Amino acid sequence: MKLTYYGHSSFAIELADGTRLLFDPFISPNEAASDIEVDAIEADFVLLTHGHADHVADAESILKRTGATLISNFEVAGWFGDKGIEKTHGMNHGGGYDFPFGRVKYVNAIHSSSMPDGSYGGNPGGFVIETPEGTFYVSGDTALHFDMKLIGERHRLDFALLCIGDNFTMGPADAAIAAEWVGAKKVVGTHYDTFPPIKIDHDQAKGAFAERGVELLLPAIGETLEL
């Protein structure tokens, strides 16, 4: 599968059959992603980990333009439904659902969640996604927590996307432990460098993961990886 990074916590996964999964689209407000043409991004499914503006800023416009299906927690799905998004699928923690591209499970995250207008955004979460091409974990914004060990016990991951920016989420040291617990030997970092409080030292971050035998990938904005 192919992963294209759009900055902050936004990325797309393209499967071999052409299905496009877009996660947490915060692109147009991100100065570092100014070279990304948001209106050129295609998606079949848009997955949102929680309601904060730095994860949902471009979701409404992309959903309406592409006709993609929104997958998120029940409250976020309902909020977008009230905005005229017709194709939504609400989930909650511990639940899984079989979509045409594979199985999605909504898993725990320790963070907060509110919508851009201040309304309730439900509980934040992450996703474990099983496809015929492989299985991966998207942490969303979270602290390190013991539920991650359950992911490692119940799933065989090919890679993970973990927040590493510190201050609002795990930093590199905790994220490296998270990688170990979930059983991921390859990690793509998210939620770093966008704002001053989450600027990181890339070499130090990679070193923290390497100490635990994990490869940390920090792609450039707009870069596509084969995973």
TrEMBL record:
Domain Metallo-beta-lactamase, residue spans: 7-191
Keyword Hydrolase included in the entry's annotation: yes
Protein keywords: Hydrolase
Molecular function via GO: hydrolase activity
Keyword Hydrolase: yes
InterPro entries per UniProt: Metallo-B-lactamas, RibonucZ/Hydroxyglut_hydro, UPF0173, UPF0173_UPF0282_UlaG_hydrolase
Highest taxon, organism lineage: Bacteria
A Pfam family this chain is assigned to: Lactamase_B_3
Entry's family note: Belongs to the UPF0173 family.
Protein name, entry field: UPF0173 metal-dependent hydrolase Hsar01_02545
Lineage: Bacteria, Pseudomonadati, Verrucomicrobiota, Verrucomicrobiia, Verrucomicrobiales
